[in-house]
Amino acid sequence: MLGDEGTRNALLEAAYAAKSRDFLPNLIIGALRRCGLWPFYLERMLSQVADALGLGHTHDTIRGVSSAAAADIIQKATSRA
């Protein structure tokens, strides 16, 4: 715990200033928009979830395209051996 009351107050003031500056409605909506949650885009959100989980099964993401290409190369390499 913070023993000094001045330190505690300074920390609380800094936290309040950061909250007041960084949690503005336009910043929150912008972050939700980049994630595909505002307005709600199911395909975009699902592709980002698949990317985050490392699934990469959706072909509309960079990870999905590269995963499919790598799978093709591995399949061709193993069929030659």
Largest sheet: none
Given as residue ranges, the uncertain stretches (5+ residues, pLDDT < 50) are none
- Helix-strand pattern: HHHH
How far apart are the termini?
A: 64 Å
**SSE class:** mainly alpha
Strand-residue fraction? under 5%
Mean pLDDT across all residues, rounded? Answer: 80
Domain count: 2
Question: Which word captures the global form?
Answer: elongated
What is the overall number of helices? 4
Percent in helix: over 70%
Radius of gyration (CA) equals 23 Å
Number of strands: 0
Please describe what this structure looks like.
With 81 residues, the protein is mostly helical. It folds into 2 domains: 1-36; 41-81, no CATH class. Helices cover 73% and strands 0% of the residues. It is built from 4 helices and no strands. The radius of gyration is 23 Å and the shape is elongated. The termini are far apart.
Features:
single chain, mainly alpha, 2 domains, 81 residues, 0% strand
Indicate the topology.
Layout: H1 5-22, H2 25-34, H3 42-53, H4 62-80
What is this entry, summarized?
This protein has two domains: 1-36; 41-81, no CATH class. It contains four helices and no strands.
